[in-house]
Amino acid sequence: MTKMNDTPIATAVAVLLLAIACASKVAADELQDCELKRLPLGSICPEGWLKHQLDKMTDGICGRLYEYGKFLNPTNGWISRAEQGELDNQRHWNEGTGWEEQPYWFRSFVKLAALTGNERMLGVCRDWTEKMLATRDPDGWYGPQPLKRVRLKDGTFMQDIWGHMVMNEALLSWYDYSGDRRVMDLLSGFCDFCLAVPEDRFIHPPQGNGYAPASGWLPLIQKARAGDMISTLFRLYDVTKDAKFTRLSDKVWRRYYVKRESLFLNIHNVNFCQMFSYPSIYARRTGDLALAEESEYWLKQHWMTWGQMPRCAFAADENCRVGCIDPRYGLESCSWGEYVRSFQNLSDHRAETKWADRTEDVVFNHAPCAYTPDWNEVHYITACNQTVIDARTDHDYANHPPMNAYSHTEYRCCLYNAAMPFPLFTENLVKRTRDGALVFWMYAPCSGKTDGVEWKLDTRYPFRETARLAVNAAKPLVLRFRVPAWAKAFSVGGTAATPGVRMLDVKVPAGGSTLDIAMKAECEFTPWARQNGISVDRGPLTYSVAIGERYSKVSVVKGDSGSDIWAEGNNNRDADRVYTEIAPTTPWNYGIDVTAKPVWKECVWNDDCFVSSNACCELSVRCRRIPEWTLQDNEPARLQLSPAYSSEPLETVRFTPLCCQRLRLSVLPQVTDNATLGYRWKKVPPTTDRKNRAKIFSP
Questions:
Q1: Would you say 430 and 33 are in contact if contact means Cβ atoms under 8 Å apart?
Q2: Which of these, 31, 235, 251, 586, is most buried using a 10 Å CB contact count?
């Protein structure tokens, strides 16, 4: 006899009862509890290679930008009440009077200062906070006055609060670290201001002829990214239990959310990396089970078309475009940080380990290469296949060059925002569950102390798969450990995780204990059907052909017209610029012989581990050159059908972790010397036809 619990009817009833329970909980408590809670900022101290990288960041762009960044000048509207007039003709865009750049920078700067304890940076945080507090108006507004009155074409005004959505999050981090109640009062007052704005004038201007502001497109960003405000409002509610924060979250959601009938959520890479998370985050307010699943739906829908490449990457170079789907196209540096932010916000609300897996994918494989190894220069585009980094070539990106050369002054938003992944990652290494248990959510060397528990995690993960955890507890407790999805086996202190289980509980007695963590990794080929290619993975890392790199500086002089593309519409063609270029010194055009398994080995350890010459591990992979695979627009041409035929001799090729390689080749074809089974590739023109340049896809 079939049990009732096994029937579809019983399942449907259970789901309905769960939805009713969720709805009643929201009605009673205003907001469902987070499944995971972050420790106070500064509770987690980076150690080992992670400390080395964060310390380098303090003397890199993030930690020093306030000393020279145009938009961080002392008269910018976030920290000055200097007369700025109406926001008109994008003056704040051109002159830096105050929009997104300052809060972008401060958001990462605060976290980096708190995590490293850098006194110079902490002093800057205090100074900026004091000056922001002084900009507050009686109605609760703070920051740039021009954003308070943005003139529309119909002569009326709106507020542009996109910058505030970012700055509120930065200030909340500072409150979390410092306990300064005045910050909470400032954020509470700004909430009052937003609640007082008539709903038809909130978040975006009215429809019709007045929709386009006289100040340009900038204020419209807040409409696409309005959901960014919700996670901060939820955290404010968690701290204060003041229902006005959830009321404002409802108002924001009403202005933002439209049930999307189109095939894709958004084709702008930064917008997408923010927007996909919003529905599941807001579901914490409503208990709507369908809404809670929207984030995963949009993510997979996007990846299936624009992705199909390693570790959450997809083809965009700002906007996804028809015909531009292969791994030569990449993401702008802002996107890596927004990805990590979304993944961790989703982790908090729904303790699903896939969000931690994906965070590690981005942090351990892509984010370091947005910067030069010294963290002093950033570029706009990081791609999975990117074998030439230069300032003048149009790589068939949506924007004009330079896009992938490194600079300490260029790339506007990315210059100020790209530092976010590593501070966010560090802040979220260890969390608490609703019942108070400590969860080791992601893995990197760190130490910390909270509520009678001290720990130190000694590891060289992700370049090794072992760790040792020293714990000193005032009383017996249970520690929880995320089991990475890639792990073939996982154990802590001799307790092994059951296959398929993603969280392992381990009991720890009072006093001192030491637990050895072991994870089993294997070399694997990951196929990408849409790309006709494969990647080589081991554990949390994807590997790239170890292309030799030659760094050089290039000066682009004001008025230089070294190429027609350069002269056409580049925002910075009116000023001198110096860029870092990287040229390949070794071959890259290989296909992989999949009949032999790659061989992994450890290399000499170096805490400066995101540098090609310091690669801490490597793979030996059997390959053949494919002479017909050439550069197009100075990047590897799109992969043709696999297996590719090649009569070139077999070679054992060195592959190193993708995170070490600024020149990268991680999606390769299969190769064979069997003329019957192999496809003969055709050589392609050295450049694409600019007259037929792929157009932006409009959902």
A1: no
A2: 235
Measured CA to CA, the distance from residue 58 to residue 66 in angstroms comes to 12
* Pair 243, 237: CB distance under 8 Å: yes
Kindly report each contact of residues 115-122 with a partner whose C-beta sits within 8 Å and lies 24 or more positions away, as own/partner: 115/41, 115/42, 115/44, 115/45, 115/46, 115/54, 115/423, 115/426, 115/427, 116/46, 116/51, 116/54, 116/55, 116/58, 117/42, 117/45, 118/58, 118/63, 120/58, 121/58, 121/63
- DSSP per residue, 258-325: ----SS-S-SBHHHHHHHTTHHHHHHHHH--HHHHHHHHHHHHHHHHHH--SSTT--S-TTB-BTTB-
For the segment 72-119, what is each residue's pLDDT rounded down to a tens digit?
A: 999 999 999 865 555 544 555 555 678 999 999 999 999 999 999 999
Let me know: does 630 contact 589? Beta carbons within 8 Å. Answer: yes
Distance in angstroms (rounded) separating the CA atoms of residues 541 and 198: 50
**SS3 at position 618:** strand
Q: Which tokens is 224 given?
A: 């696409």
> Is the pTM above the cut of 0.90?
yes
Helix (H) / strand (E) element for 116: namely: helix 101-116
Write the single-letter amino acid at 478: V
Look up residue 449 and give its amino acid.
K
SS3 542: strand
181 by Cβ neighbours in 10 Å (0-12 / 13-18 / 19+) ranks as exposed
